Amino acid sequence: MKRLYSLISFLVLLGMAPVYSQFTLGFADSNQITNIPTTAYYNDQATYFVWVKNFSSSSTYQGTIWLYTSVDSGNGADTVQIDTFSVVIPPNDSLPLVLNEVYTPNDYRIGGNIVVIWPQAMNANWLNGSTLPYPVYILGYSSVAETDEESKRIYPVPCSNSLTIRIPPGKEKPEHVMILSADGRVLLEAPFSATLYLDPEWSPGTYILELRYHSGKREHLRVVKAQ
Fold this sequence. Notes:
Strand order of the largest sheet: 1-7-6-9-11-4
Helix content: under 10%
Strand content: over 45%
Number of helices: 2
Mean pLDDT: 81
């Protein structure tokens, strides 16, 4: 994951470049971002549109626009992707820029996340604010099967009254563990133990195991509970 300092470094370099003030770009007056989901599952992919307007009354803008997508999932903002667009925008006209985002467990937490889109253009000023934020709520994992590597980390599969977590040799040991329902509700939170006991009242189905490390890293694995 590219950290926020990569964005800061880019902006420092950008500040050294000439800006031609006859061009003023900005987010469109209305419908600035469209087709954006408000909820998603892990590994879902969203295709949405950010509308950019050329506010010049007489000149066509032709140049390059960068859109940085940062995510604040509660531990500070991380830059997760950078998209580059070569565009031609007539005077007083708007153009949709297409973004594709994958909601990965490494970048998004279960629950609320704030996604911030930060635009830059090398040869234009930017109007009406420099960021475009929107919320997205991660519901957890869908019914898509886990990877082979995930399936080897937790056993038995499915489990009923208890489960065992395998920590690969040489890997950092987690400090805390949580079990969440598929809609993000915290059902269990405790210091890490390789063996966890499940509430017999929990319904059969899919749950999310969250491992939290001293470094701040979080890891998510799937738990399948039987009767």
